[in-house]
Amino acid sequence: MAKQSICGANCATCPMNGKCAGCIKTKGKPFGGKCVLAECCLGKKLKRCEQCKATEDSCCKKMELLKEINSLKVNGMPKVKELFALNGSFVNMEYSLSNGQKVKLLNDSDIYLGNQLPKKDSDRCYGIAANNTHILICEYGENGKDPEIVIYKKR
User: What is the CA angle 116-117-120, rounded to 5?
Assistant: First the structure.
């Protein structure tokens, strides 16, 4: 049987295919950590996001986060129109703090909702990663070079 996702992602095209058993079989924990979309669906006793009737064409958790992220009005960041399920290991960058300490703020085994957007009048990008407890907006250069925390806030 083919692996199946809760959010509607195509497991067959996922770069992590072969490294997880699929969302449905693992009850929303394909990499062992939490998934913001699976928690939303399973909390509503639904099997898949498409069953959510919060809006006609979108997931309620995505809509909630889109509103919250856009309300932050980050200077130079375009309006966020879409959020994608992202494995933490792909987006968990190491940041340098002012005291020289290096930190990672995300969990590699969790699945976040996020996106990458170009920074206005710059060659840098904004990266967004959010879950049920935090929103992270960072800025970085090509291939994640020199990442900087723009906003890290508790929800």
Answer: 155
Spatial distance between the Cα atoms of 19 and 49, rounded to a whole number of angstroms: 22
pLDDT of residue 1: 52
The rounded distance, in Å, linking the Cα atoms of 90 and 55 is 29
**Interval 90-144: pLDDT, tens:** 899 999 999 999 999 999 999 899 999 999 999 999 999 999 999 999 999 999 9
Tell which residue, 36, 26, 29, 97, has the closest CA to residue 63: 36
Q: What is the pTM of this model?
A: 0.83
27, two tokens = 């009850």
Alpha helices per DSSP H over 3-96: 36-43, 60-70, 88-91
In whole angstroms, what is the distance from residue 145 CA to residue 155 CA?
27
CA 123 from chain centre, in angstroms, equals 22
Per DSSP, the three-state class of 70 is helix
> What span, in angstroms and rounded, lies between the C-alpha atoms of 109 and 135?
17
Decide if 113 contacts 135 (C-beta within 8 A): no
Query: Structure tokens of 60?
Result: 């309620």
Residue (of 150, 27, 6) closest to 85 by Cα position: 6
